[in-house]
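User: What would this chain look like folded?
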Amino acid sequence: MKTHNKIKFRRVASRESSNFSKVVGPEDINIFRPRFPGLMKNKKGFIRIIEAIFAILIIMGAVLIIISKNVQTSDISEQAYEKQRYILEIIANNEQMREQIINNDTTLANEFIRKNLPESWNFETCIEDIDRLCNPVDVGDRDIYVSESIISSSLTTYTKSKKLRFFIWR
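Assistant: Here's the prediction, encoded as structure tokens.
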């Protein structure tokens, strides 16, 4: 057996007359009506749309974070070694730079290297005796590409040969 909920109606007095002529029900209560008629007729739909937009933004943010962590940097090893060989060959064939390196001075060589390397690459050079090793300053957790060349004296003067080590990292 079905039972129906009865909606209670009450009579209220209108302002114009003192008799009880107007019937008031739940549809007449202000809390159920939007303040701006026609602006938000379905509040639940509007809230669902906002929830969906926030969900999409959260998912897109998570995907972008995951993708950015998995981006692989391009392998520059071949390019770095070719560039190092080219630069060391030119330094070894330049009389002025060779004499400076034999005298433990790398100013000309470093200027030449800086001009020939891309700006995103960092470098360091060190000069040591042939039987000694030198390491770059702490560069962190990066791939370092190393090449070296032995620089000997010129034909006119003899001095002890030096080793020029050339480090590149990005």
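The chain has two domains: 10-69, 77-169. If you want, I can go into more detail on any region.
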